[in-house]
Amino acid sequence: MCPPADDKSKGANGPDDTLAPDFDLLAQNMGRLMEEAGKVTAAYLKPIERGEAKTGAADEASEMVKTIGRVAERWISDPRKIIEAQASLTSDFMNLWSSTLKRAGGEEAPAVAEPDKRDARFADPDWSAHPMFDFIKQAYLIGSRWAESMVDKAEDLDPHTREKARFYVKQIASALSPSNFVATNPELLRETLRQNGENLVRGMKMLAEDIEAGKGELKIRQSDAHAFEVGVNIATTPGKVIFRNEIIELIQYAPSTETVFKRPLLIVPPWINKFYILDLNADKSFIRWCVAQGLTVFCISWVNPDERHAAKDFESYMREGIFAALDAIEQATGEKRVTTIGYCVGGTLLGVALAYMAATKDKRIESATFFTTQVDFSKAGELSVFVDEEQIKSVEEQMAQRGYLDGSRMAGAFNMLRPNDLIWSYAINNYLKGKVPTAFDLLYWNADSTRMPAANHSFYLRSCYLENRLSKGEMRIGGKALDLKQVTIPIYNLAAKEDHIAPAQSVFLGSQRFGGPVEYVMAGSGHIAGVINPPAKMKYQYWAGGSLTGSFEDWGKGASEHPGSWWPHWVEWIKAQAPKQVPAREPGSGKLAALEDAPGSYVRIKV
């Protein structure tokens, strides 16, 4: 064990004497640590004793074992390939051992395995400077990469099983990283000695609190939960709730300009998260920015459903969500024609609604914008690893017990897509370093999860992810066959280059399914940061202008790159369609009286 490489007081052959712990205090803290560990056990057992334990974890573990077992079967069937794979692993470890012996003898030796430059787990200098930790790091990298290669090289494995196996191997490798344990992480070891174990006591206390907050399951805090309050310092754009039914509140935002564009804007956010991702704070708020551009903005705030909403399906969300909002907007403003935005699954619902409206000759929506939305799921993102007949049946059985899918399930799935960043980095910070996470509005929103009604979620998983019915023209809603080619209104389809949930190529394919003019634009960054990118920040870039007639790669060759946010490009697209302006409209001044101040009540319902 040694201190940081830049610690000038470090001796040549050993650790700094100042790191010697107070053994009496260390012993006391170890006793306190055991007490806190007992509270962790109690927090875990309490829901089980009450019969309130959440189900599903055993099914997920079983699915992982079965999937990795299928990979193992492919290797067992060919002993020669097993011997070759073992020889490759043995060779790498022999090279590592040789390199380590050379370093111990004072010789220079190149690394056998180097972490990715973006891998923050091994950023501490001692991971490379200290031979022991360098050996541990490289051994881990060799082993984890070998396991990944075993999945990639397994023969006669169907693509879905291979993707699931890659996903599960990534989860196991992330969990077993030496950076996750005090004894094998130089930074944690230093901190523990310096604090005489106090960091571990604080961490165990937070672990108990987080298991209790998760009602028997670990709900890792990613932000300081006490730093934000919806309607106080987050989701603060002024407005009023002007309509409410069982599944939505409709917010009309107060104007900030003397005149506004005649055609209103309706935003349909995803119901798997809360709408205020579009209204985090004054600097980041897309909604506030739209209001400042002279748009009359309406936004749906979905209810956080419970057992009463179990039968609410996709058609219910279309009729009681989008269509109810269109009716309310007409009452509030007198306008029968609107433009719309759909974000993620809210965009998928909007696509379904547009196809239904085309089939019924309903022309109330004049143009539509999609944010990182899939309507063609043939090349769906990483979430598709959770979707096959067996897994959907398991989810449906869970939902049948309560009438909904618990929000923690979906939140956990999203976090598992980036385990090192969204799970283990916080586990280390919170439970091993004993630090409270910093206040970060985006991660506060990420943790503010919602439930999914059973009928709605089952339809989405089966008809979209599993069977891809919408893009094939096989989906039926309200007795109508849906055909996206009949949707001929102007479309602005925004993808994000690094999106792992709605990949840019998948969004591109969706653009080709519509029957009218489509402006396909690709923003830099990912599913959230690519969308929430205010112009004043001058971050990232966007690409526009390529042809939709060829492949995604062909589009990229013809597209032009532009620095900064895509927001101004989009609003010019909106203004060009309907430039007429009228005096600003105050919420509640029409036929619908204001019910309460924005952001309303539904958004405050917790899981």
Quick rundown:
This protein is of the alpha/beta class.
Describe it.
Helix 18 links the parallel strand 12 and strand 13. The strands form four sheets. An eleven-stranded mixed sheet has the order 15-14-13-12-7-6-4-5-2-1-17, sandwiched between helices. It is of the alpha/beta class and 607 residues long. The protein has two domains: 197 residues, no CATH class; 308 residues, Alpha/Beta hydrolase fold, catalytic domain (Rossmann fold, 3-Layer(aba) Sandwich). The longest helix is centred in the first third of the chain and has 27 residues. It is 45% helix and 12% strand.
What distinguishing features does this structure have?
2 domains, eleven-stranded mixed β-sheet, 607 residues, PHA_synth_I, Rossmann fold, disordered N terminus
